[in-house]
Design brief:
The chain is an alpha/beta fold. The protein has one domain: Glucose-6-phosphate isomerase like protein, domain 1 (Rossmann fold). Helix 1 packs across helix 8 and helix 5 packs parallel to helix 6. The longest helix is centred in the last third of the chain and has 21 residues. It is globular, with a radius of gyration of 16 Å.
């Protein structure tokens, strides 16, 4: 194997290790990762049983991730699931209210108490993501977060319903770990 192949294999091994090293908090208290995934499954089950919605937000690569898993939640799980990454909506909100409001404004217009916000941010420091999560908490929504980089990031430190953290500062590792954790629950839900 050449050096490039060895480096790629090392990158993949690190990804696998980071999945196992990811941590979770439920209502501010540490819980095991497997318990966190069970709580997420229970949360989505409640959304389906109570005819509630799941909203997804993310920037850049996380925006692509939330589009993917949102449609999986609809297709595989039958749960009402929505994202706010339509280009016309994003440019309207950005132009009229500033990029910091790009998720919060539509959330305030569309979400209801007991809906769930899934907020994904590698850095956990994106103001538009944090502001939307804070608004969701104020509205009485459940808030589930996925972040990486510093465990002291703003998103991970919120008193959210459920918070997952991956200890990496590499975007690719953060994004793929978040996606793998979410897909694990989608697959468990669709088989259940």
């Amino acid at each position: 194997m050449n050096d490039l192949g060895k480096e790629a294999l090392s990158w993949l091994r690190t990804l696998a290790k980071l999945l196992e090293e990811s941590t979770c908090r439920h209502e501010g208290r540490p819980v095991s990762l497997d318990r966190g995934l069970e709580i997420l499954l229970e949360t989505w089950s409640r959304q389906l049983d109570q005819d509630r919605s799941v909203f997804w937000i993310g920037n850049g690569g996380s925006s692509a991730l939330v589009s993917h898993v949102s449609q999986d939640l609809i297709n595989k799980c039958g749960i009402r699931s929505l994202t706010f990454n339509d280009p016309a909506l994003i440019t309207c909100m950005s132009n009229d209210y500033g990029y910091e409001q790009v998720f919060k404004r539509p959330l305030l217009a569309l979400a209801r108490e007991r809906d769930v916000l899934m907020a994904v941010s590698s850095s956990g420091m994106s103001k538009n993501i944090v502001d939307a999560a804070l608004a969701a908490l104020e509205m009485g929504m459940g808030v589930v977060t996925f972040s990486a980089f510093s465990p002291d990031n703003r998103l991970h430190q919120l008193e959210s319903t459920l918070s997952f953290h991956t200890p990496t500062d590499v975007y690719g590792h953060a994004e793929l770990t978040h996606e793998a954790l979410i897909h694990a629950v989608v697959d468990m839900f669709s088989r259940g």
